[in-house]
Each structure stands twice: as C-alpha cells, then as structure tokens.
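so the lab meeting is tmrw and i was supposed to have these ready like two days ago... anyway. pasting both below. for each one the top line is the aa sequence and the line under it is the structure tokens. i havent really looked at them closely yet so no promises
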Amino acid sequence: MIINTTYLDKEKKKLINKIVGDSISWISLFRGELRGSNRMIIDEYSAGFKTKFKNINSILYGNIEIREKGLIIRIPIKHYETISWLIGYHQLAIFKSKNFSIHSAGEFIKFRIDSSYSLNNKFIRQLIKKKNSYVKTLEY
C-alpha cells in the first residue's frame, strides 16, 4: 500500500501498525539489529508510483525501515512530502541483479547498486533474515 506520510495522524499510524507492525524494540537495537537503511538512489519504479512522482525531475532517494511484520520504504519528494510504501513480509520479494529491487503486489522499486548500497549490505542481510523468520512462523 502506497500512502502519503508527510503528516501522520492517529488513523495513519493505526493503518501502518496493522500492515507492518510496531517498530523494532529498543532491546533489539541494543542487540545490534538495525532499524533503517541509509538512503539509496531509486533508478526505476512501477506504474503505481508514477502518479505520485509526476513532475519530479531530480534524483529520487529512498530508505527502508524494518518493522515486526513488514517494512516501510520512505521516499521524500518535492515540497517536503513523503510517500511511504508499506509491505508485509508475506508479500515481499527481493532481487539483486544490476539493481537491488523490492517487489510486492505487482509494484516494484529498483535501487542503484553503488557505494550507498555497499553501506547497506548488513542491513539487507538482516532484512532477509527477518523476512524468513516471519514467514516460518506463518507455516503450519
């Protein structure tokens, strides 16, 4: 689900917590888990984002936040607006080819593989572990 999170009210916070869960606890942070990635350059995105990003001629950046049941990809756009893509782990697909891409429910974002990507390697490995452990809890 793609929503505008420039201003968060109670309803948006409830929706976010329902889809991707609460943020990672402080205890997990003290154990060395990472909550968010460094910003990465977005090279390409699917049609669902085109209406949100129309009339943007500059480079788009995005960062990823890990939650209990999913992740949030935050993309700041012009005039201090922020678009967030909420993805549950059960819908998440991650690929690495010439780009690092995240897919869910027919939408995708492709991040450039450059120096900022190499800074996020530990974070991406942690994201994949979280996804795998969450999906195992869903299996019977």
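ok protien two:
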Amino acid sequence: MSTEIASPPAMATEDTNGKAAHRCEATAHGFAVVSLAPPLVAVIAMLVHKLVPNQQTFLRTHLYPGLLQILLGLGLLLVLLQWAWRPSRARIRYYSPLFAGVIAWLCIWDLITLKLAWMPLPYFPGPDMVLQGMWDDWPMLLDSIYRSLKLLLTGYFIGVACGLCFGVLIGWFRGARYWGLPIMKVIGPIPATALTPLALLMFAEAFNSGAAMIAFAVCFPVTMLTMSGIANVPVSYFDVARTLGARRLYLIFRVAIPAALPSIFIGLFMGLAVSFLTLIVAETLGVKNGLGWYLVWKKGYAEYDKVYGVLVIMAVFFSSIMTLLFKVRDWVLGWQKGMIRW
C-alpha cells in the first residue's frame, strides 16, 4: 500500500521563498518612493514658482528659488546616501515624509500668496518676500537673537536654581512644607506677565526686570514638580540607604534627588515653555532689544514680511532650545532607560 504526498517540501520551500522575495521587493519599492518624495516635491515647487504668474506686486528675488534648489540638492543627497550607506536607510525613510511636507508647505504658501493672491498684501507676504526681509535685516536679527538668548538663559537658570532649592526644602522638611506649600499655592499661579509693573518698579534696568519676570515664571513649575518628585520617592529606598549607614545629606543628594529626576525634568520643560511667553512679553514692554522688541517694532511700521521672518526665527530658536533640553534629559536619565516612558 503506497501513500501519496499532497504538498512536497520542495514546493512549500519555493512558495515561502517567493513570498519573502515579493515582500522584499514591495518594501524596496515603497522605500524608494518615500526617499524620492523630497526631491520630487522640490521640483514641483520650483515649477510652480517659475511657471505660475504672480498676482501680487513684488519684485522677484533669487532667495526663494535658491532655497528650493538647496532643498532639492539635500533631497538628492539623501537618496544617494541611503543607497550608499545601508544603516541610514531607516532614519532617512522615517524623516523623508516630514522633509517633503516642509517643502510642500512652502509651495502652498507661495501659491496662495504670491501666485493666486488669495491672501492679500501687506498682511500675508509670500515666502520670497519674507526671505528678502530676513536678508535685509540679518545683522539686527542676529543681535536680537543674542539679546533674547542672554535674557532667556539668565532668567531661566535663576528660576531653575530657586525652584530646585524650594522644591527640595518643601519636599523633604515638614516645617518648610507647612509654611512654603501654602505660599506657593497662593503666589505661584499668578501669571508673571501680571507682575510687569511691579518688576519695572523694583528694578531700574529693563534687563533685570525681564530676567526677574522669567525667573518668577519658571520657579513655580520647577518647585512644584521637584517637591512632588521628592515626596513620592519610595520609602524603601531610604530604608535601604539608612541600613547601609547613609546620613541626611546622602539621602537628599544621592537618593531623593536622583529618584525624583523624571519629575524634576517635567518641571524644567514646563518652566521652559512659560519662559518663552514671558520673554516675548518682557521684551515688548520694557526691554529695548530682542526678538519680541523687533516683532513689535516691525509691526508698528506694517513691515509684515519681517514680522513673519522673526516668527520663523522664533520657532527655530525655541524649538532648538527645547530639543537641547531633551538631549540633556536623555543623557542624565540614561541609567533609567527602559524604566520610564515619556
């Protein structure tokens, strides 16, 4: 009596290999489409800017076309890089849609302003006019960035130092918590911008008053999150340390504060966010330099191309500082990787 085999192993192996090859081919095809998106969108944006007639009255410059050419070159460079260096493929594939989206946003902005005039001048200039305005005022913009960075960092670090000290004291000592927590609950929620007249009266120099406002705005979230982190450290941590002979200073600086770092960093991020708002208000009311001062000055003269230019600079400026703080957090909390989720 003989037995017939319905599905030979060789046929099953060939079918499996065929499916794997098909999946690899589809993956490679999708990756090629994604990686080619930025240069293709850049070419479309260049054609739109060159071929579609202008509806707004504006002397065309070479800044915006030059920017598109740079973006096109970067897109082609990324395409070559992902074929030449295999480890870069995953990262390039992840960021290529974002890169293409930025170029598409520039194209849409150019189309609805300069080309179709759906948004009229002088309130809605196109990217070409904004780039020209930034180029014309680049020395003053660089000085404004420096002044704003100096004021922001001065107030932020003062507020962080005060907030960490107050947070540790209130979170660790019962007496400090009894008196300090009600004070923080009453004074802390007051917006720093509401204290502008008081700050101008207390400090003769506008820089000092602006730094004081930023420090006040930063101090409250850092204090509250530090206090919460210190108070919520598991008691078992302290019991183990005391068993090994740890004293009070060791418990504070080597046990409580390291364990509270995730909560402390949340306070640092919240303080940085409110410091941006307070910086702009301080520069518009008292300080006679900086990005906020430049914004109000150009708005008064209806130079909206330069107003939008400084808004772009603010976005890059603030996001860069926030990204730097993320890097610092990842470096400091590297020992907790996999234990916490952000």
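from a quick look at the 2nd one: The chain is about 80% helix and 0% strand. Residues 9-51 form the longest helix (43 residues). will dig more after coffe
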